[in-house]
Amino acid sequence: MLSLKKLGPGLLFAGAAIGVSHLVQSTRAGADFGLGLLWALILVNIFKYPFFQFGPRYASATGESLLEGYNKLGKGVLVAYFALTFATMFTIQTAVTIVTAGLASSLFGDFISIKIWTIIILFICGSILFFGKYKLLDRLMKIIIVTLTISTILAVVLAFSKTPNTLSIVQVLPKGSIEISFLIAFMGWMPAPLDISVWHSLWTVEKKKSDIDITPKASLLDFNIGYITAIFLGIGFLLLGALVMFNTGKNFSDKAGVFSNQLITMYASSLGHWSYVIIGIAAFTTMFSTTLTALDASPRAMNKTIELLTNKKKKFGYTFWILLLALGTIFIFFVFASEMGLLIKIATILSFITAPFYAIINYILISSKHTPENWRPSKPLHLLSILGIIFLIGFSVWYLTIL
């Protein structure tokens, strides 16, 4: 039986995953297509599952993160990871922070600008990571995920009881270039970008440094709890979009503040203004958890990558990367504040196009001599991995051919 103390990296994974993919993309999918893209949500979660799972599987079996494993496969793999991460981390952090700042402005008051809210949120997240380190992040995420799950369930129940819309389960395959572009963006971050498998492996190694003995079996159970939670809440936000906004003729703004107000106001007007707080808590908790975990994980991964490439420990490397990421986020936000939709689209599409790289590398590593034989994939997991790689490459090629 997995005790609450042993839960941690899986919930951090859920906190990182349940963000733009759920609040923005899933809600938009429901608003534009009803339940028509449910097939895409389920399919991409199934086909991405092995590659996310290989993160905690490798880390708990070897005591190393995936980054050490990449290094064993060759320096070129690690350099490629560094380049891909550096190219995307600022856009991803900006995308999630913009939405969080917009929600903060809607919930706590627009007496200060969204730009200032961005700085405040990054300062709060940075302070949590500087002073509380992994232990506080681990404890805080348990509270956040429970709050998020309860508030989302309440919102869905309210939507079912208050809205007259009837849901059709007819599935659709988008045909136009704009619709296909949205489909790829939707799947790009559903439930999360595949590089979060690296984050998960780093959190698993960090968790193992505590006095709590975590076996590979317990680590996989922890991951499965987090993964199922992410899928469950993804369907929840899809339902909310379908029940409240489908066929209303309303479109979301690309501006963070306007988008946030639209989102909460639409829900509140349909479900009752007293539901504003519930919707607001669900939305803000969703995005704050992603902002916090992303601000921890990318610097943690970049610092570890540099250490492996240079064979030198960096005393203040983690702190340096957090500061660099925060400053880069603020810069991009101040320049592209009015282009929230574009930033999210770029970030999500880049995540989907780079997904085959992470899928292939993770599969090669977990199947290699560097993983203890007992913890290499079973035959069904091998098959699912191969099908997943074909799926990810196929959809990426399909998207590139319509550009």
How are the elements arranged and paired?
Blueprint: H1 9-17, H2 20-33, H3 38-62, H4 66-73, H5 75-108, H6 114-162, H7 177-188, H8 196-208, H9 216-245, H10 256-271, H11 276-310, H12 317-336, H13 340-366, H14 379-402
Helix pairs in contact: 1-6, 1-8, 1-9, 1-11, 2-7, 2-9, 3-8, 3-9, 3-13, 3-14, 4-5, 5-6, 5-10, 5-11, 5-12, 5-13, 6-9, 6-10, 6-11, 6-12, 7-13, 7-14, 8-11, 10-11, 11-12, 13-14
Write up what this structure looks like.
With 403 residues, this protein is mostly helical. It has a single domain, classed as Amino acid/polyamine transporter I. It has helices spanning 9-17, 20-33, 38-62, 66-73, 75-108, 114-162, 177-188, 196-208, 216-245, 256-271, 276-310, 317-336, 340-366, 379-402. The chain is globular, with a radius of gyration of 20 Å.
Note the main attributes of this structure:
mainly alpha, 403 residues, Amino acid/polyamine transporter I
The CATH homologous superfamily: Amino acid/polyamine transporter I
Low-confidence stretches: none
Strand segment count: 0
Main sheet?
A: none
How many helical elements? 14
The secondary-structure element order is HHHHHHHHHHHHHH
* First-to-last CA distance: 49 Å
Helices and strands: which structural class?
Answer: mainly alpha
Report the mean per-residue pLDDT as an integer.
84
Q: Provide the CATH architecture.
A: Up-down Bundle
Helix content: over 70%
The shape is: globular
Report the β-strand fraction as a percent range.
under 5%
Q: How many domain modules?
A: 1
The CATH topology:
Amino acid/polyamine transporter I
CATH class identity = Mainly Alpha
Question: C-alpha Rg, in Å?
Answer: 20 Å
